[in-house]
Amino acid sequence: MRRIGLTGGIGSGKSTVAAMLVAQGGVLVDTDAIARDIAQPGGIAMPAIEAAFGPGVIASDGGLDRAAMRQLVFADGHAKKRLESILHPLIGAETERLAAAAGPGATVIFDVPLLVESRRWRAIVDRVLVVDASEETQLRRVVARSGWTPEAVRAVIAQQAPRPLRRAAADAVIFNESLSLEELAAQVQSLWKRWAAPTTR
Question: Which helix (H) or strand (E) holds 96?
Answer without folding.
Answer: helix 77-102
